[in-house]
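Posting this for the archive.
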Amino acid sequence: MSLHTKNDFTFGPFTFENGDTLPQVTLTYETWGELNEEKDNAILICHALTGTSHAASGELDESPGWWEFLIGPDKAVDTNQFFVICANVLG
């Protein structure tokens, strides 16, 4: 199994296009695999409807992710080769 991390990033204030403002926002992001020395093996996975950073299982959360069948060791997005990043988004 490849390296798995889960982190939070807090910032604010955040102003939406309509002018509404959130005083503070916390985004969660997960990573799988390892960034290589050249830092050229990163893949950013974005989502439209899930609202979660949990795209695949890992050591920190073994529950299946919403792209479980695509992300992981020896899968289409091979975490033995790539450093995968997925963040939740404000929508």
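Residues 37 and 57 are 25 Å apart (CA to CA). The longest strand covers residues 4-11.
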